[in-house]
DNA sequence: AATTACGCACTGGTCGGACCAGTTTTTTGT
DNA sequence: ACAAAAAACTGGTCCGACCAGTGCGTAATT
């Protein structure tokens, strides 16, 4: 299905192993056959096997310990529901916050411009998006939240801004988006976010550019820091789990 | 900072290359030195280099083409200048000012972050770029001006910011760049620009983030408005010419 | 006999050289 | 001058060797 064997041996072997891992043929924490074993069984040189393994390591699916072997490191056994989250951007979490740093500026600018330049039509759209979002079920408002912000960016009447923000958003992995949305599950966060949305809305509608910028920036920053908190918590959980496991295996 | 060199050679080489990519030392789409070259330059075997490259490939930071080489595949997707949408807008002067509007924010943020996060090495680079620029012949300092701004953006240590600003800059047509440079011909503008540069430089070096942001934003805004003025003047000239023609043909 | 220590048989990590296969540049023969 | 052949790149694959951690079983020591 997703068999892209693209370039060649090492690639296809990596894909093959990945498939086995995702299938569950290779359970998490289970030991992967040794390099020499794979090499002879697959009829390729050991170098190729090593390249394939490094490829998987790059994706964080594998961990290798000198003298012991390589092990599947699917952190969370849960199929593919809620928490492959961390693993994806765990190595790049820094970049994620860099991204928020940029977004903070641009969303702020967008809100300010929207307050200044929104036409009546824009204001109508913003109002509609806002009301729809407020009335909606908190669990399903991912799209609506997005639509609200989008309506504001569009009201800024700056295509470059729109374009850049779009590509930044598409940069965020779905998992991260999901995580952001999961903030809504925590009542305190949800309320804070709602408050921010209201502030942004009113500021833009009442054409108070300065306030709009401030509110939008605060909003992005809040989301970013909330995410950071969650990451910190999960890191602790993971570490705790690992410690626990080591205790058990000791 | 995030330098986990953990296991060994291939890992640390991968990390090193990743750093270079994120830093912008290796621009997107740029060719990475050949495996044999890296191998000899880093003093390790080619196999190790290959493993490091595969690691990066696994993370999607690299693409490799047989017989050609390996290439940085933009971590931060380029703000597509090729997208049909942008294609339409490019060239419209209105879009140009939208662009400056965005740049104003981002350059400001970059300067502020640079003031906060610049290492000694960064400061040295910035100082060198600044002094070189000041000492240079005003007519040929297009490159140097660019280098100065770049050194500051790099000192912000935010790869997303770096890449976005890079792609924005590439959006500006050469003609525009030339026009900006032509501002230097007018003594008043030139002096103002120099003053801005000095302010930015001193603010960043003395770690005054707020001031740095303000200066950088003022700088971009000034350039933008100067350009607008020039355009206005030229428009008058053109209109005058057109009127003249109509008179003649009447 | 129990315990320690050594050593062998694993594991991954690194090396160098060889060769194949695409791509680009240079040379060369008409 | 031009087109074809050749040389000089590039990455892709293989081999065989050796080093370095790890673990286990056996032999030496107590």
Automatic annotation (TrEMBL), chains A, B:
| HTH gntR-type domain segment(s) | 7-75
Q: Which UniProt keywords apply?
A: DNA-binding, Transcription, Transcription regulation
InterPro entries found in the cross-reference section:
GntR_C, TF_FadR/GntR_C, Tscrpt_reg_HTH_GntR, WH-like_DNA-bd_sf, WH_DNA-bd_sf
Q: Which Pfam families match?
A: FCD, GntR
GO molecular function list: DNA binding; DNA-binding transcription factor activity
State the CDD domains in the record.
Answer: WHTH_GntR
Q: Which SMART domains match?
A: FCD, HTH_GNTR
Q: What is the protein name for this chain?
A: Glycolate utilization operon transcriptional activator GlcC
């Amino acid at each position: 299905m997703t068999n892209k064997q693209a370039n060649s041996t090492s690639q296809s072997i990596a894909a093959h192993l990945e498939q086995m891992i995702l299938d569950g043929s290779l359970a998490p924490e289970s030991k992967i056959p040794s390099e020499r074993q794979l090499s002879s069984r697959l009829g390729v040189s050991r170098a190729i096997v090593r390249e394939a393994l490094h490829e998987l390591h790059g994706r964080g699916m594998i961990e290798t310990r000198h003298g012991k072997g390589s092990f599947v490191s699917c952190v969370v056994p849960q199929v593919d529901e809620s928490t492959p989250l961390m693993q994806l951007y765990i190595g790049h979490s820094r970049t994620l916050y860099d991204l928020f740093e940029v977004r903070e500026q641009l969303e702020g600018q967008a809100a300010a411009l929207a307050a200044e330049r929104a036409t009546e039509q824009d204001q109508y759209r913003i109002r509609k998006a806002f009301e729809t979002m407020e009335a909606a079920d908190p669990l399903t408002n991912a799209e609506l939240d997005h639509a609200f912000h989008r309506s504001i960016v569009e009201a800024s009447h700056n295509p470059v801004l729109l374009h850049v923000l779009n590509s930044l958003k598409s940069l965020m992995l779905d998992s991260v988006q999901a995580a952001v949305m999961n903030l809504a599950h925590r009542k305190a966060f949800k309320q804070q976010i709602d408050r921010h949305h209201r502030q942004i809305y009113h500021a833009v509608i009442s054409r108070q550019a300065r306030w709009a910028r401030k509110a939008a920036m605060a909003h992005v920053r809040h989301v970013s820091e909330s995410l950071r908190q969650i990451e910190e918590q999960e890191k602790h959980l993971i570490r705790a789990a690992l410690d626990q496991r080591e205790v058990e295996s000791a």
